[in-house]
Amino acid sequence: MNISMSPIGVVRSTRKLKQDDEWGREKASIELDSSVFTEEALYGLDAFSHVIVIFYMHEVNQERIEVGARHPRNNLNWPKVGIFSQRGKNRPNQIGITICPIEQRDGLILKVKNLDAIDGTPVLDIKPYMAEFGPQGEIHQPVWATELMRGYF
Q1: Residue 28 belongs to some domain of the structure
Q2: N or C: which end of the chain has fewer CB atoms below 10 A?
Q3: What gap in Å lies between CA 121 and CA 85, rounded to an integer?
Q4: Domain holding 123: CATH number?
Q5: Does residue 3 lie in a domain region?
Q6: pLDDT tens digit string along 115-149?
Q7: Is residue 74 in some structural domain?
């Protein structure tokens, strides 16, 4: 089965190059496609503190797509884990998802914080973050994941 999607907009960011870490220093916004949407598409988002941004990592080299296991960031001190046990960009479908605090809505532009997508990244969807869709119960993760995320935002 093939699935076809059209972006709803594009990321505008001060980060132009693919690189890990320090995403919190970047300025980012999502610019909706004005040929499809009016600013009404964003009405009501001001009432939420966060959005879930779903995007397509369009600059991933197809030859580097992972389908098995690897050491996250090729760090041999961390265990070899499957691609679905990490958030690496070289994923089979190149889909990224980030929960971002909303800073401001201005017409067709939604300014957000901590969006780990480079300038020009196609946005597939935006959803309001609702606490009821968040994790239920205690959260746990391996030590290597906490170490990896230390300087991410």
Answers
A1: yes
A2: N
A3: 23
A4: 2.40.30.70
A5: no
A6: 999 999 999 999 999 999 999 999 999 999 999 98
A7: no
